[in-house]
Design brief:
This protein is of the alpha+beta class and 427 residues long. It has 16 helices and 16 strands. The strands form 3 sheets. The protein has an 8-stranded mixed beta sheet, sandwiched between helices. It has a 5-stranded mixed beta sheet with strand order 13-12-14-15-16, sandwiched between helices. Strand 9 and strand 10 form a beta hairpin. The longest helix has 20 residues, at 18-37. The protein binds one RNA strand of 77 nucleotides through helix 3, strand 6, strand 10, strand 11 and helix 12.
RNA sequence: GUGGAUGUAGCUCAACUGGUCAGAGCACUGGACUGUGGCUCCAGGGGCUGGGGGUUCAAAUCCCCUCAUCCACCCCA
């Protein structure tokens, strides 16, 4: 009986090689934008008490009903691997007393999330999100800022042909009356709804709006179908108007989608999603909105909040699909080729000097001849190769070859370091 | 969780209706070329054909189960 091959768990993957360079690029852009807008990083635990998500995300959501990685730890506590980032951020805000000491904060995060789902391209059980959250702000200008940050990140990554869909989900004052109108309308036409929607109607009628079945879609087109926009209270209507005006002011185009509802219960007022046409069924590459009711669900009413999160896997898929030619490369400036044991000593000593000058290099300690080293260096795309063997040691210096021009010089260490110092910006 | 498609070398793919030791390209290793790269030529390593069971004289090929991947539903990032 042969040993079974050990592979990654279902729905997870290793990120390596050329792909990891894209990940680094995304993370770099995210951190840069956070820095420019003054959002501080927050790192919350990978797992939380199950109760946080049950109450924060909403008992009726798919996430809580069937997608959570929940287990008992050895102390009998119910623990859940975080399925999303907003509830933990709000938990941290409350836990650290910020509502009293520093009620308005802007945070961003970056890291793995976990949902137990059937894997598919762009849908992993361990997936990664970055997110931006502004807590304690109720002005619509902050909704606009959050969308602007998302917009600029996608732009910086060179992603175009994205659509921004926008809706308002109302608030605790106006949503109930809309819900009863919607429920009434749907109840009266129950026969035309698909089986799924009949079930949704009982549990969470708002989700019916998300249905793509033809029969349900036809209902939505009916002139008497209640559209949420018409039921918003003046506060929500006003808020939505200002968000739209703010986006127009920035030249960010959007589409109002009255059927956009989000899968998490905590959203109020603004909800948005960023979609692409190039990823098949998993077309949402980012989304967010306002969640003024989340803090109340966690026991501290009255903390406003707005944020967005984006999936790094999906962004990388898009980048690989559309940006092949601009894929960032990681090539060192200098390739160090020791040709014998003495050469290795010299190379290691030189490596320490090179770090002082901040010259990026790669040491290849393969026990091979010069031909091998040059071939490898050539393949790596590096410009400069430094050769150190008996010949160089006897003459007390280094042979430096330029692989693009083919020319080669013999240099003393101080000359070498000075040259590389100048050259490193060109590598 | 439901439905469909696909699993052959590290990668991309061959192997007529079941029929001699499962092949090629790329990649890798060694050599031609002992300290000077890209090219060329030669040689080599690699596979329980995803796993298990069955049918058959004979299975990569047919049947069943299982696992994995992909696609769709669902849901979202």
């Amino acid at each position: 009986m042969g040993q079974q091959k050990i592979t990654v768990p279902k729905g997870t993957k290793d990120i390596l090689g050329e792909e990891v360079v894209w990940w680094q690029k995304v993370e770099e852009v995210v951190r840069e934008m956070a820095n420019l807008f003054g959002y501080q990083e927050i790192r919350t635990p990978i797992f939380e008490q199950t109760e946080l998500f049950a109450r924060g995300v909403g008992e009726e959501t798919d996430i809580v009903q069937k997608e959570m990685y929940t287990f008992q730890d050895k102390g009998g506590r119910s623990i859940t691997l975080r399925p999303e980032g907003t509830a933990p951020v709000m938990r941290a805000y409350i836990e650290h007393g910020l509502s009293v000491t520093n009620p308005r904060v802007k945070w961003f995060y970056l890291g793995p999330m976990f949902r137990y789902e059937r894997p598919q391209a762009g849908r992993m059980r361990q997936f990664h999100q970055f997110g931006f959250e502004a807590l304690g702000f109720s002005r619509p200008a902050v909704d606009v800022e959050i969308i602007l940050v998302a917009y600029l990140i996608y732009q910086e990554l060179g992603l175009s042909e994205l659509t921004l869909e926008l809706n308002s989900l109302g608030c605790e004052k106006c949503r109930p009356s809309y819900l009863s109108k919607l429920t009434k309308f749907l109840e009266e036409r129950k026969d035309n709804l698909c089986a799924n929607c009949v079930r949704r109607l009982e549990k969470n009628p708002l989700r019916v709006l998300d249905c793509k079945e033809e029969g349900c879609q036809n209902l939505f087109k009916s002139p008497s179908f209640p559209v949420i926009e018409e039921y918003l209270c003046s506060d929500c209507r006003n808020h939505q108007f200002k968000v739209e005006a703010g986006l127009e002011n920035l030249g960010i185009s959007y589409q109002i989608n009255p059927f956009l509802v989000r899968g998490l219960d905590y959203y109020t007022k603004t909800a948005f999603e960023v979609k692409t046409g190039q990823l098949g069924a998993q077309d949402a590459i980012g989304g967010g909105g306002r969640y003024d009711q989340l803090s109340a669900a966690l026991g501290v009413p009255g903390v406003a909040g707005v944020g967005f999160a984006a999936g790094i896997e999906r962004i990388v898929l898009l980048l690989e699909k559309t940006q092949q030619e601009t894929r960032p490369k990681k090539v060192p400036c200098l390739y160090l080729s020791p040709l014998d044991e003495e050469g290795e000593k010299q190379v290691l000593r030189l490596a320490r000097e090179l770090t002082k000058w901040r010259v990026p290099f790669y040491c290849d300690f393969a026990d091979k001849g010069l031909r091998y080293h040059l071939k490898k260096a050539q393949k790596s795309g590096v410009k400069w190769v430094l050769m150190v063997g008996q010949e160089e040691i006897e003459r007390g210096g280094f042979s430096l070859k330029n692989l693009t021009s083919g020319s080669q010089v013999f240099l003393q260490e101080d000359e070498l370091l000075r040259l590389l110092q100048k050259e490193k910006s060109l590598c």
